[in-house]
Amino acid sequence: MILTITAALVVFIYLALRLRGNRRQRGLPHPPGPQPRPVIGNLLDVPTVEPWVTYTQWEKKYGDIMSMQVLGTFIVILQSPSAARDLLDKHSAIYSDRPVLPFFQMMDLDWAIPLARFTERWRRGRRILERGLRPSMTALYHPTQKAKVHLFLKHLLERPERFREHIEHLQGAILMAITYGYDVKEGEDRLLEKARALVALAAATVMPGALLVNDMPFLRYLPEWLPGMGFKVLARNGRALSKDVIHEPFAFVKGTIESGMAALSMAREILAEHPEPESQDHIAMALGSLYSDTTVSTLLSFFLALLKYPAVQEKAQAELDAVTGGHRLPDYEDRPRLPYINALCMELLRWRMVAPLVDDVYRGYFIPKGAIVLANPWAALHDPAVYPAPDTFNPERFLTPDGHVKDDPLLTTVFGFGKRICPGRHVVDETLFIVVAYVLATFDVRHARDADGNPVPADPAYMGMQTSKPEPFECSITPRSKAAEVLIAAND
Prior knowledge:
Elements: H1 2-21, H2 51-62, E1 65-70, E2 73-78, H3 81-89, H4 102-106, H5 120-132, H6 135-138, H7 142-158, H8 163-180, H9 190-205, H10 212-215, H11 231-258, H12 266-273, H13 277-288, H14 294-308, H15 310-324, H16 339-351, E3 360-362, E4 365-367, E5 372-375, H17 377-381, H18 425-442, E6 443-446, E7 462-463, E8 469-470, E9 476-479, H19 482-489
Parallel strand pairs: 2-5
Antiparallel strand pairs: 1-2, 3-4, 6-9, 7-8
Helix pairs in contact: 5-13, 7-8, 7-18, 8-14, 9-11, 11-13, 12-13, 14-18
């Protein structure tokens, strides 16, 4: 009992000191936001379902820069592109850092480029990724992407009800092939499952309030047998995962290079440019940072959009048929002649998305050192003054009256800002195009039907804090024709 009371008192004093340290300085206020409660701050105000929607609604009350405090951690939310670019682009040297998270330190996860501090090691890893993912290089991966998407079509034909699982497999198969020249096995693949598990663990523990040790770092030094120390077991498991995600696929590609059997991949090309041993740890850590599940969410939204907006599907299919004649699958070379498909891909990026992103003064506000700064592109990309009826899926908003694709600088915000902009954005764009084109050329996506023949509703919530995915939903996926079945069944 005495131990419990003492521990509670220590926690209270620690949080009170943290909150005191975040008080305004130099006579300047913090950005506005909901009124914090004693000790816990705005912990109870943090939305857990579609937080970007709630933040967008708060913009009407607090403006396009607002703040919260959660267990002593100061969070700034940037609601407009101008606010985000002022801080994250124009002051990128200040706002390109990441907070120190004790749990990630315990997992030895400081190597991961999206999570790493703004250090020379991060800059070196970032240069590796940018070189390996430059447009002239990503074009070489088109045959790999097409082969993996063709296999995805076959999976949809065989087991359409498992489309979510097929999408997840496709995402991993493309990334592992491009990064390491590694062919992901059917069903569960050990290397892919480890990467997924590490990403899921990081996503579940990154936000303030997710783990008490991130807000009270001294907890990491307490013995594991104490109540509430379960995070230590979690960190130990995460540390083993972290090590495997870096080294196992890298060892695979080095082995294929030594045997002369290495397929085209980022790893092969980068190792050819930097064979020196001292570079290999940097390369291995940079490449291990590439796995992400963001494209999974976008492709799930694609299937949801098709069943909710059948007219969009029909118009896209008509455009594809006019180009291919229905006798072949579309190709990257067809892209200039497929403006509606391109606009559909742009609308997918706008329609459903979330992007996160430290001491500076901005617009007369004081932003404490160590604050977490989050950009909310959703607010701008769902502004009805810019995108009428923003919740409606409408590719034509990205087309000119004469049917050409419009350039929309705002859309780039889905990939982030400043020095932290997504290095894989070109691969994402090319993957999204070929998946959309292949699926629309070969399948019809409609509402599933219940036992009485009635359409099954599909209006899933989007869950997640850093990246969002729709909750499970049902749909019917059937080949468009016998000719489409032949295209799907054909060998690559």
